[in-house]
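Protein in question quoted in full.
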Amino acid sequence: MPTFVPAEAHGDELGALLSYLDAQRGALRRAVFGLTEEQAASCPSASGLSLAGLLKHAAEVELTWLRWAQQQPNERQRDAETWGDSFRLVGDETMPEILTFWDGVSAELEKFLREVPALDHTFPLPDMPWLPDDTSVSMRWLLLHLVEEHARHAGHADIIRESLDGKTAFELVTLVQGGTWPPA
């Protein structure tokens, strides 16, 4: 556990879930700390994943789930032809632009969730081949799913970053906080 997620205020389940989600976002974002655009976009493993692509994917996943929960159209909807573009920077996209986009999505998601009457409030899942038919999920489920999704990709990011320059998650936490590695 490279970071400690502070305990929620008594009874603040939404706050606790948002804190865990933010911790996983932080793990993904730290993976690009100190890297050049070229390093962040490189694919040093057999999987073809890059750190830049993972961050873009995480941002788009959050947007997709937010729009499904809002029951609104997704302005970045992917199809079979563009699915791969959600895992890489295309055209003139840059890491700062992706991180700014993700900041906006994260803020919109939190605002939306704080306005929902309760975490038990549900929304229907769209008709997608990988989702069950005629199923609704709660806002609680949505948050837990995003924590799971980001944690999975944070693990990918750890491996990619170590492949690039050997830096580990613990080392990056220390460096981001202004410390030195190894600790004294």
